[in-house]
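Weekly structure sync, notes
Attendees: PL, DS, HV (note-taker this week)

Item 1: Outer membrane protein with beta-barrel domain
DS walked through the input record. Source organism listed as Spirosoma oryzae. Sequence as pasted into the shared doc:
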Amino acid sequence: MKKALLFLLLSLMAPLARCQDSTLVYQHPARFIVKLAPLSLLDQDATVQAGLEYRLGQRKSIQGEVGYGWQTLPLLGSDLRKFAAAEVWRGRAEIRFYSGRYRTNQRQGIAIRSNYPVGNYWAIDGLFKQINVQKAAQPGRIDVNPPVPIDVTGPQLIRRYVIGSHVKVGRQFAFYDPQRRIFSRVLLDVYAGAGIRFFTNQGADQVTDPACGCGIGRSFYYRGIGVSPSLSAGLKLGFAL
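Item 1 (cont.): predicted structure, written out as tokens:
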């Protein structure tokens, strides 16, 4: 009789225990997330940019990105079009630390634990950017005594190098499929951060005519190593493999 009563009591308490743990374990085999950065097309140094995120553990991942841009790529216009030729190379690497749970309903306390990284995170990144611009050939001065042919200054190449680092906070969302009642492999990554960057212009000392627009907050003709504060914000579309 006592055993029957004990079994009945445990049976009644089991649903209550399950209600106290509102974490839904969402099993998913993905550890890699392929990403695209559409907002990089709106940058003054626009690039076609893609990245890959790899999960290292329950709350940690690493991510790398590469991008390439050409002179006519910027959708909103750019001072790069004032040069005879231009190209942009961009790279970024970061380590992320996730909160561990993806909360979907604050009132009911529902959360989801998945095998790929979703939810709030903070990150530290490092960036590298190289811009190659080429000025067109410029006519030189004429030496009239004694008369000589016109001297022409050849194309002048400037390489602008930028390195920097940011501390960022963000959130990676998983899209919900109401038909199948599961979270799809399509993700949205939104972030913002602040940091510092260093820059230098190689070949600026060879330019004979530096008069041209240089974009917002920068100069292709600055000599030496410069430093400035840096802001980072954007979003990425991802697909979990």
